[in-house]
Structure formats: C-alpha cells, structure tokens
Amino acid sequence: MDRSRSSAGLGAGRSSPVAVARRVGFVLSTLMAAEAVLLLVPMTVAALYGEGDIVQAFVSVVVIAGALGASGAFLFRTELRGISRREGLAIVALAWLLMCFIGSLPFEFTGTLGPLDAWFETVSGFSGTGASVIADVEALPRGILFWRSFTHWIGGMGFVVLYIALYPRLGVGAMQLYRAEAPGPEKDRLRPRISSTARILWSIYLLLSVALTLLLLLGGLDLFDAVCQMFAAIGTGGFSTRNASIAAFDSPFVDWVIIIFVWLAATNFSLHWLVLTGKPGRLLRNPEWRFFTALLAAFSAVIALLVWTSTDASFGTSVREAVFAVVSMGSTTGFALGDYELWAPLAQYLIFILLFVGGCAGSTAGAMKVIRVQLFTKQGLRGIFRTVHPTAVAAPRLGRTGVTTEMMRSVSTFIGLYLLTWAVASAAMSATGMDFATATSSVATALGGVGPGLGEVGPFDTYGWVHPAGKAVLTFCMLAGRLELFTVLVLLSPTYWRR
Predict the structure, then answer these.
(1) Could you give the CA distance from residue 295 to residue 360 in angstroms, rounded to a whole number?
(2) pLDDT tens digits, residue range 232-249?
(3) 451 closest CA partner among 157, 175, 235
(4) 3-state secondary structure of 292
(5) Model pTM score
(6) Helix (H, G, I), strand (E, B), or coil: what is residue 236?
(7) How far is 416 from 195, CA to CA, in rounded Å?
(8) Which residues are CB-contacts of 376 (< 8 A; sequence separation ≥ 6)?
(9) What percentage of the chain exceeds 90 in pLDDT?
C-alpha cells in the first residue's frame, strides 16, 4: 500500500455513520475481550509465585476488560466484510490506544507506577521500544515483571494481525486492517486469504519463540527468565528481568543465542516461510536481507576494532560486545551487554545511525526499515547520474525487480515525514530542558522502537526522570513509529474527516 497518497481511497464508501460505528465498536470490543484473556497468563504466574495482592489486581483488570469487551461485542455485533480503508486506519490506531490503556492498568492497580508512568511503560512494551521508567526491575513482583515482558511479545507481531488470524470472517476488510498495522512499504501475502497469511506469520513467531526459550534454558536460565528474555528478543523489545539486562547472565552462549534470534526476528517473516517451505535460495537472493546482514557485519567489524584498540577488553570480548550492540540496536531490540557510551565517538556515531535504519520490512523490528533506506539511497544515486546524463533512462531496481515511481514517491515521503517528526519532537524534548544528545537520541529511539539512546538515556539509564511533557511526546513517537506514522498522523489530518 502506498501510504503517501492523499485522501483518495480513504472514503468510507456508502456506509452510514451508524454502520461504521458498529464495525469499529465491534472490533475494539472483541480486542478488549481478547486482552482480558491474555491478562490471565500473568495473573496465573502471579498466583504460582504466591503474589496474592498482584492476583487480585489482575482479576480486577480482567473483569473490567472482559465485561466491557463482551458487552460491547454483543451490542455492536455486525458484519465486518465492509470495512473500508478509512475505517481500517481508525480501528488500528484506536485499538492500539485502547490496548495500551487496558495494559497499563495492572501497573496502576498494583501501585507499581502512577498513571503517566504506567502509560509510558505499557506503550513502550507493546510498541517494542523497551524504554523504561523503572530503575530497579528486579524489585518488581513476578506477575508484573512477566506482564511487562509479555507486552513485547503481544505487540511484536501486532494485535490486529492476531485478530485477523483468529477471526477469518473479516473477508476483504482483513486486508484494510493488515495494511494499516503491518510494517514496511509492501505487504507480503503468503496465501490468497489474508487471514491465512496472518496465521502463518503467527505460526513462525511461535516457532521462533519456542526455539529461543529452549536454547536459553540450555544456557542455564531458569524458566521465568528464559521466557521473559524470549518475549523481549522475539518481539525486538528489550525489556529484561535484570537491571543489567543480558550482561547479568554473564554467559557468552546466551549472548550469541540472543544475537542470532534478534537478527532472525528483524528479518522479514515471509523469508522465514520460504526457508521452511524449501526455498532457502530466495532468502540468500533477497536484496533487503543481504543489505541488512552486510550492514550489521560491517558496523560490527568497525566497532569491534574500535573497542579492541581503545579499551582494555580482549579481542574476543570486543567482538562479542560489538556484535551484540550492533545487532541489538540494528534490530531495534535494545538489549544491553556493554556500555557503548564508554566507547570511541565513532562507535557511538555508528550506533546512532542504527537508531534510524532498523530491520527488514515484515519483521518485528522498527525504525525506517532497510528497504526504504536502500531505495532512498538508490534514488539519490540515480539523481546524481541523471544530473550528469540528463537524457539517460535509468530506472531504479532492487535486485531483479524494477521499482515503480509510485513506490519511490512513497518511500521519499515516508523518510521525509519520519525525519521531520524526529526534528520537531527533538525540539519539543529540548524545550523540557534536555541536552542535545539526549533529546535527539531519545526521540530517535522512541520513533524507531529501540529503547536506549545516548546521553542521559544510555543503555543502563531509565526514563523515569524525564519531564511529564517529554514522556507524553515520547509515547506519541512510540505509537506513531510502531504504526509507521501514516496510520496515526492521517487521523490528525482534517482531510481524513471530510466525507
């Protein structure tokens, strides 16, 4: 879908306002009921650890969300096949706001966090950002700690994609919802029916989740830690159960396992499907995946050399910490192993670049996506070539595939809007009193869904000290970045509301 187009095609068709409201209300209500079911998982964990007060808080949230969701689904019950593109955008944006609000209640009801901090932590969790306001996570009750990590896993593949997988009666309306939530400039369809595609994506997601959990158990982690680190890694989120993040486990085996799986999570899930169906050559020939992997390898080599020559770390440790930092930040996961703010300025600059690039389209990674960076670079080089050879015909290509003018326009619009949002939000953060490095990197990491940045929001810092207005700006950036800007910003445009 070309999200750079104007309001053409956004119209709600001939549906009456009542019909539109019923469709939106039904989807939001059933999603609320689904979240109530998901909340039973951390509630059970709290019960297993004997946390009676935490269980009571979860019960309250489950009852509220379940009752409102079930009653809303009954009152708004309707046929969903007529969902338009306009309604799809509204449903996805409102669904994320609603799910984050419900998800913040356990933090509030248990007294763990106040309303604003609970909202910040939950949005950070569901969006896969991993920026936290909590200084001592190891002091949290197990039920809350589990829910905090679980939000990464739920939001990684997306609420609406899960809804599509479980509710096949959406018909053509499913594509409108999928387009509004799925990351990347193009939406791969692995099957003719989009509900079948959603089920395949979630199946791959589950397969990677189980595999990583088993390997972490093999690496010496207990079941609780293994599952929670898995949630954060596969969802490319970064919340850990330890204050020192992955460094707390002091295990090279665990470090390399995390490196491999966050790299896999940042790879287009359609490529995983091709490998599983006996077509690994398609993965190796994919230009986006090759560029992404080469970029991580190049950055890792340079940073490893810088760490080795400028610190007293051994060569092996330098390589491991460099690769971990590059893959963690490049996949927008944000796990911490070493403090990259102690490294050479060039190493920190390369880390900063990764905050913008992100992973592959169709993955759980955030930021601008590699394919957009590739196409934007090709467009720039093509512009230089046309300046020298104005009469030459030089259509941009990505691998063996030609790139349409419409796609290039969409990519250029997205990157321009992304950088404009970053600049404006950075100015807003500076207005709260932040220094330049902290303001610019905090916005970059929020938009990109990374978590740690530079300055006062480094890999072992928290966001608890940030001004309330700054937290509001960052949560907006997290949601806008996770939904790739247009889904959120279109709703703020007067054009959207004109019939």
Answers:
(1) 12
(2) 999 999 999 999 999 999
(3) 235
(4) helix
(5) 0.91
(6) coil
(7) 32
(8) 411, 412, 415
(9) 66
Question: Confidence class of residue 493 from pLDDT cuts 50, 70 and 90?
Answer: confident
**Tens digits of residue pLDDT in 173-182:** 555 565 655 5
Query: 230-259 burial, b for 16+ CB within 10 Å, e for fewer?
Result: bbbbbbbbbbbbeeebbbbbebeebbebbb
Q: State the Cα–Cα distance between residues 359 and 258, nearest whole angstrom.
A: 16
Using the structure block, give the residue that is written with the tokens 């944006």. 93
Q: Is 255 left (phi over 0), alpha (psi -120 to 50) or beta?
A: alpha
Residue 453 has a CB neighbour count (10 Å cut-off) of 29
**Angle (nearest 5°) at CA 426 between 443 and 159:** 35
Query: Is 50 exceeded by the pLDDT of residue 4?
Result: no
Q: Is 384 exposed, middle or buried (0-12, 13-18, 19+ CB in 10 A)?
A: exposed
Asked whether residue 384 carries a pLDDT value surpassing 70, the answer given is yes
Alpha carbons 77 and 80: distance in angstroms, whole number: 9
* Residue 238, phi then psi, degrees to nearest 5: 115, -10
Q: Which residues contact 172 (CB under 8 A, 6 or more apart)?
A: 81, 83
Which residue type, as a one-letter code, is found at position 393?
Answer: V
CB 58 within 8 A of CB 143: yes
**pLDDT at 453 > cutoff 70:** yes
